[in-house]
């Protein structure tokens, strides 16, 4: 199905701004682009329209506003036929705290609530707010919708979202596990139900979103009941530059015995750990696979840690789900790395998983389907599409339907 309508989707990260204009019914993208490395000395801008790629260098320090000004000028001056078809703007917002369990139309109250959540996500919410303010100014006639990464995980039960810390920290400061990548987990779990031919309400999915950031979710009947990221995106799996779970005592040791400042610890945990930290080579899975094949010990070790942690989480999520309909791999690594998928399934051999080597090798570059043998529990590869989730929610809200 397709329509004439388009939704402009904006995804502001701490150093990037991604945009796309897409049909909320078919998911077809008319325009897409990214302003990248916006906090570095060489910010860049790339966009694609009608299959043609364009690129330009930006001035150092140009920031999010330069990308946004470019996008507005592109739409208003060069592509008015697209601008005329816009029915809404959908914004990805990382942290909605406990305020939002689904997407909402943005008004003053919503903006205030997003601001309030910024203390929980100081790196992530401020650029999101920047995008919202700029879009409100440039397109005052268009409804704007916020879609939260945390919203999908608001169905977690207390025993899954609470830290076993003094309860007053939750009561007074709302310190708890929130989870991220909600739009992706939601998208692939819905698609998995379609591929399995089972009503969503009857499926139990374990989804693994493996990009630069990585998280897992246990999804029962379409509702998230556990997830690996916590108050911040640092908890859980091994990621590109984040190490996931660590003993909090280690952080105190770094401060007290090695003299690390909080800022230094923050840098270490967010930017210097994970695949990069262990391999001492790269955070890029492709590069690590190449190096590992050539015998690079650090790369081999980093990939092994990544797969081991992932398999442990899959096994853990069989506890709340009991019966698992499918394990789903998604994100740049999940969608493309047959090596990682095979290793994880090998480690899950105790639960009966067996990869179909041929099918597994075929699943890359946007292919979707099963990668396990007929007598194995099912594992699927499903390319994620967070932009489409955002566009669909925005269109539903504009049409007056709850998402
Ligand atoms: P982001 O979280 O930034 O959106 P992506 O979902 O694009 O990240 O995932 C990036 C990761 O996917 C990188 O580690 C990259 O190496 C990995 N990746 C992409 N293509 C392949 C491939 N063919 N084989 C292995 N890993 C891949």
UniProtKB/TrEMBL annotation:
- The protein's name: Acetate kinase
User: Which family, according to the similarity comment?
Assistant: Belongs to the acetokinase family.
Assembly, per entry:
Homodimer.
The gene from which this protein is expressed is ackA
PANTHER family according to UniProt: ACETATE KINASE (PTHR21060)
Q: Which organism is it from?
A: Microbulbifer halophilus
Which residue positions does UniProt flag as site: Transition state stabilizer? 181, 242
Keywords for the protein's UniProt record, in alphabetical order: ATP-binding, Cytoplasm, Kinase, Magnesium, Metal-binding, Nucleotide-binding, Transferase
Q: What is its EC number?
A: 2.7.2.1
Please classify the protein's predominant subcellular localization into one broad category: cytoplasm
GO MF term (any one): acetate kinase activity
Q: Where does substrate bind?
A: 92
Q: Where in the cell is it found?
A: Cytoplasm
Q: Can the keyword Cytoplasm be found in this entry's annotation?
A: yes
Enumerate the Pfam families for this protein: Acetate_kinase
Question: Which residues make up the binding site for Mg(2+)?
Answer: 11, 386
């Amino acid at each position: 199905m397709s329509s004439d309508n388009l939704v402009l989707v904006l995804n502001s990260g701490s150093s990037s701004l991604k945009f796309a204009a897409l049909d909320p019914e078919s998911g077809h993208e008319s325009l897409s682009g990214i302003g990248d490395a916006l906090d570095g000395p060489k910010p860049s801008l790339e966009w694609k329209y009608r299959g043609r790629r364009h690129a330009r260098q930006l001035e150092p320090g140009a920031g999010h506003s330069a990308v946004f000004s470019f996008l507005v000028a592109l739409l208003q001056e060069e592509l008015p036929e697209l601008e005329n078809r816009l029915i809404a703007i959908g914004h990805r917002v990382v942290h909605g705290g406990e305020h939002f369990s689904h997407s909402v139309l943005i008004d003053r109250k919503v903006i205030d609530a997003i601001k309030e959540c910024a203390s929980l996500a100081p790196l992530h919410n401020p650029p999101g707010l920047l995008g919202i303010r700029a879009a409100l100014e440039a397109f005052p006639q268009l409804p704007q919708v916020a879609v939260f990464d945390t919203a999908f995980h608001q169905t977690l039960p207390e025993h899954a979202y609470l830290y076993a810390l003094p309860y007053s920290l939750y009561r007074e400061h709302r310190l708890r596990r929130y989870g991220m990548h909600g739009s992706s987990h939601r998208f692939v779990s819905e698609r998995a139900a379609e591929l399995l031919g089972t009503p969503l309400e009857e499926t139990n999915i374990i989804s693994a979103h493996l990009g630069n950031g990585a998280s897992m979710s246990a999804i029962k009947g379409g509702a998230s009941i556990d997830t690996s990221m916590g108050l911040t995106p640092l908890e859980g799996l091994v990621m590109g530059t984040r190490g996931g779970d660590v003993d909090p005592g280690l952080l105190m040791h770094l401060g007290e015995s090695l003299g690390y400042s909080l800022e230094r610890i923050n840098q270490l945990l967010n930017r210097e750990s994970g695949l990069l930290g262990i391999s001492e080579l790269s955070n890029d899975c492709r590069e690590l696979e190449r190096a590992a094949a050539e015998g690079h010990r650090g790369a081999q070790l980093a990939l092994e840690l990544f797969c081991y942690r992932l398999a442990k989480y899959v096994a853990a999520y069989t506890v709340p789900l009991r019966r698992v309909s499918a394990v789903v791999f998604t994100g740049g690594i999940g969608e493309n790395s047959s090596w990682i998928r095979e290793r994880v399934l090998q480690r899950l051999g105790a639960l009966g998983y067996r990869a179909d080597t041929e099918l597994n090798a075929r699943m890359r570059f946007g292919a979707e389907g099963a990668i396990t043998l007929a007598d194995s529990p099912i594992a699927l590869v499903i390319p994620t599409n967070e932009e489409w989730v955002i566009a669909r929610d925005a269109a539903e809200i504009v049409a007056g339907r709850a998402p």
